[in-house]
Specification:
With 294 residues, the protein is of the alpha+beta class. The protein has two domains: 173 residues, Jelly Rolls (Sandwich); 107 residues, Arc Repressor Mutant, subunit A, CATH 1.10.10.60. Helix 2 packs antiparallel against helix 3, helix 4 crosses helix 6 and helix 7 packs parallel to helix 10.
């Protein structure tokens, strides 16, 4: 089991998907990640010391299951609140949104060795199957997470995990919520918003983003609240904070300054940004910058 005191370093270690992550409300500066190859099925067990906002797309050739291990009712996937009887299923190449509001929590992902064809990720419900799968994950992690790999026990555990997961997928699939105007696909709107944001050199303003997407500010607000639990302005600020932190922590030229990094991200109100940065990360941008250059 790996332990991190930095959210971005933890996020880079998570496998199976291309992720855009931001933490939201840190309770404790501790993130953990454990991974088990169970003979073709990969179990990933993680804990986070904060709330989180995640937009991602699967890079695994099979279906991935996302399953809360704690605070199931606080974990919102694709606009739906999970509970102890539900999980998120992500087919090959499928995208997804997950958010947890300001709470430390834990989860697991199960990367299956086969794909379940589906037009996008979906919520699967099994009143008996999901609790059974959760208990099985906890037992496997407790027994094998720190043991030598590629043993008969790992392969047996993998077979049991695939059987339990398959039982959950064979039951009810919850339909997506009917929200907004019938013709509005909020998943597609979020997808286009992420492409637009990532295609710009600096973080856009929320109003400019709405105009670029051809929607009203209210429509964009509702889509972001549903997908990420925060309005677009907050989402863009969190994204900018993490982008700056990654830049400050990356190797740079000897004569580069903190101001150089900030201006590259479109920031000119240095003092105001530094205050927000310290509130979010517990240190000033200059401290992050100096630590990376020791």
């Amino acid at each position: 089991m790996l332990t991190f005191d930095d959210f971005d370093a933890w996020g880079e270690a998570v496998s199976g998907a291309s992720l855009r992550l931001a933490c939201n409300g840190i309770e404790t500066r501790r993130w953990t990640l454990g991974m088990l190859d169970l003979g073709g099925v990969v179990l990933q067990v993680a804990s986070e010391g904060a709330g989180t906002i995640c937009y991602g797309a699967s890079t695994h050739p099979g279906t991935i299951l996302f399953l809360p291990l704690t605070l199931a009712g606080e974990q919102i996937c694709n606009g739906r609140r999970l509970d102890s009887e539900t999980l998120l299923a992500i087919p090959r190449g499928g995208d997804f949104q997950i958010h947890v509001r300001r709470r430390a929590h834990s989860w697991c992902s199960i990367a299956l060795p086969f794909d379940v064809p589906h037009t996008g990720s979906w919520i699967a419900r099994s009143a008996a199957g999901v609790p059974r799968l959760t208990r099985l994950v906890m037992r496997i992690a407790q027994s094998l997470i720190d043991r030598p790999t590629d043993t008969a026990a790992h392969r047996e555990a993998g077979r049991a995990l695939v059987a339990a997961a398959s039982a959950c997928l064979g039951e009810e699939r919850e339909p997506p919520p009917q929200v907004g105007r019938p013709r509005l696909d909020r998943g597609d709107l979020i997808r286009r918003a992420m492409v637009t944001i990532e295609g710009q050199a600096s973080t856009p303003a929320a109003g400019d983003l709405a105009r670029d997407l051809g929607v009203t500010s209210r429509t964009l607000l509702r889509a972001f609240q549903e997908a990420f639990g925060v309005p677009p302005k907050r989402f863009l600020l969190l994204r900018q904070l993490h982008a700056v932190r990654r830049s400050l922590g990356a190797p740079g030229s000897a004569d580069e300054t903190v101001a150089d990094v900030l201006t590259r991200h479109g920031i000119w109100e240095f003092g105001r940004f530094a205050s927000r940065y310290r509130t979010h990360f517990g240190e000033l941008p200059s401290h992050t910058w100096r630590r990376s250059r020791r």
